Amino acid sequence: MTDQQLQQLVEKISLRFFAKPFLHRAYFNGRLRTTGGRYHLETHNIDINPKMADMSSKTVLEGVIKHELCHYHLHLAGYSGKHNTKEFKQLLKAVGGLRYAPRVAGISPQAPKVAKYVYGCTHCGLTYRRQRRINIQKYVCGRCRGKLKLISANG
Ligand SMILES: [Zn+2]
Ligand SMILES: [Zn+2]
């Protein structure tokens, strides 16, 4: 989706759900990391996290746009438009906006953690991957009770 298509979508949602035009600009902003979007009080523009548009479900992107449009229309109407105000909560509910953008980290499957420590059993050869160091004086192989040794350590 391009910025132009995003702009058109925001304008369409604004008219349909808020019955008011969106007269500013909407952009994708790849620097947004943990939020789905941002409304700028100074410029009245809206930034949208491009990851929201990558998602298979259109309702997430629309929900994020509605959320930012709640800030936009309340602010232009003279309200603070902050999350904890009655006006914001009511408007958000009325238009079906998302209260929280889905955590961006939760959108794409999280990369598996790379094990920092790899241990091997000196007897049967079974390997163990761990985030933390284990005390090899104390712990033995779970399969054969053999002694463990450190094979590699990253970081
Ligand atoms: Zn917000
Ligand atoms: Zn073993």
UniProtKB/TrEMBL annotation:
Any one of the GO BP annotations: response to stress
UniProt keyword annotation of Hydrolase present: yes
InterPro entries: SprT-like_domain, SprT_Zn_ribbon
GO MF annotation list: metallopeptidase activity
SMART domains xref list: SprT
Native source species: Lentilactobacillus farraginis DSM 18382 = JCM 14108
Protein name as catalogued: Putative metallopeptidase
Domain SprT-like intervals: 4-151
Record's keyword terms, sorted: Hydrolase, Metalloprotease, Protease
Pfam annotation, one family: Zn_ribbon_SprT
